[in-house]
Amino acid sequence: MAFDPPRPGDERFMAAAIRLAFRHSGQTGTNPSVATLLVRDDGAGPRIVGRGITALGGRPHAEAAALGEAGDLARGATAYVTLEPCAHHGRTPPCATALVSAGIARVVSAAADPDPRVDGKGHRILLSGGLSVTRGVLRADASSDLSPYLTRHALGRPQITLKTAISADGRIGREGSGQVFITGKIANGQTHLVRSRHDAILVGIGTVKEDDPGLDCRLPGLSDRSPRRIVIDPDLTIDPDMQLVRTARRTPLILVAKGSAEPDKRRALIEAGVEFVACDTVPGSNRVALPELLEDLGAMGLQNILVEGGAAVAASFIEADLVDRLILVRGEIEIGEGGIAAPIALDEAKRRFRQTDRLSLGTDLWFEFERRA
After folding, report:
1. Known catalytic membership, residue 63
2. How high is the pLDDT of residue 42?
3. Residues 122, 195: one domain?
4. pLDDT tens per residue, range 182-229
5. Which UniProt keyword terms apply here (predicted)?
6. Which of 253, 303, 258, 245 is nearest to 285 (CA)?
């Protein structure tokens, strides 16, 4: 296949498309949040004539939305697409075919699509249709935002982000003291924004019993973007009066439990709206076999999971090498003697992961890391 080199302005419009795609992050089901911009120049400079994002729930795709907005202005335009256009037939024709049929003159794509139904086939449809195709523009930036989708295809499991708040003396709480507030209002708001961009939040039963959390998104205007809640509870010891159970019909709750655990209680919880995922345990212990669990959660369509569990759950994901992204938020307070040690210290995180961001949020420091290549 003969691809054309980038042209002036390609990075500018692709960056705008990547920002647009971010609006529906975590809200497009098993499909990735992709954006398309249609740009044409009739002699007075380039202008955007069509915009599209993968719709909530995953359909229609971004290309179809952008073509619908542009109408006849799509003919002769350039399409900037953050992911290679799809090539497989469903209820509607492939997006690559739709771009050809609409008379698009040129397509600029960012990330390649690893789905075996696409994986280069979309580009081939475009080239066979006589379009100019440029690929790989801002690939790294687009791939970072699309990483849950790319991880699921590459590893067969959801992408895992571990987030934890750490006190100035390296602790995350105090045993038996309930929730200890380590970070301030600004960092807490950022946490809720991160929640809104994930398919699910995962914690252990210890955190639920200690804090009785809601695990929802409480930012104004984003309450309807609260992700599913997942609780690892092998022996099914959760109290039915916990607020996670009481709100299960409003925001889905998935309990990870052994198939043989408490059948009567299981039936009552199902009647309350709780979903179940059966789990295996590591031989010789009561710890859940995480690789198998993630495989099952991926089969349910979950692409990215935010782990906010306590020290034990966090440590188990780290030890199993299942953390793809890491967020550490360092507060100013000191917990002191008797505090629970953080599952990973900041210095260790910098050695094991690649730091991608550092933010000052009020008096707190927010660090982001990702798995080293």
Report:
1. yes
2. 93
3. no
4. 999 999 999 999 999 999 999 999 999 988 999 999 888 888 889 999
5. Hydrolase, Metal-binding, Multifunctional enzyme, NADP, Oxidoreductase, Riboflavin biosynthesis, Zinc
6. 258
| Residue 64 CA: distances (Å) to CA of 77, 89, 99 | 14, 14, 8
Do 76 and 141 belong to one domain?
yes
Token pair in block for residue 254 = 């998935």
As for how many domains the chain has, the answer is 2
Does residue 190 sit in the same domain as residue 315?
Answer: yes
Residue 115: strand, helix, or coil: coil
Q: Which of 63, 84, 368, 370 is the catalytic position?
A: 63
- What is the span of the domain harbouring residue 256? 156-371
pLDDT, position 222: 82
- DSSP at 281: B
CATH code: domain of residue 62: 3.40.140.10
pTM for the structure as a whole: 0.88
Q: Minimal CA–CA distance to 55: which of 29, 78, 37, 77?
A: 29
Specify binding-site residues for substrate: 215, 218, 308
> What tokens appear for 334 in the block?
């000191």
Name which of 157, 133, 159 is nearest 78 in CA terms. 133
Structural tokens at position 208? 């639920």
Residue 301 region, left (φ>0) first, then alpha (ψ -120 to 50), else beta?
A: left
Domain end call among 82, 113, 148? 148
Structure confidence at residue 181 (pLDDT): 85
Task: Indicate the average pLDDT of the chain.
Answer: 93
Beta strands 159-166; 364-371: pairing state: unpaired
Which comes out higher in pLDDT, residue 224 or 364? 364
- Known binding residues are 61, 86, 95, 165, 195, 207, 211, 215, 218, 308, 310-316
Where is the binding site for NADP(+), in residues?
A: 165, 195, 207, 211, 310-316
Supply 163's token pair: 């987030």
With cut-offs at 50, 70 and 90, classify the pLDDT of residue 178.
low
Do 192 and 279 reside in the same domain of the chain?
Answer: yes
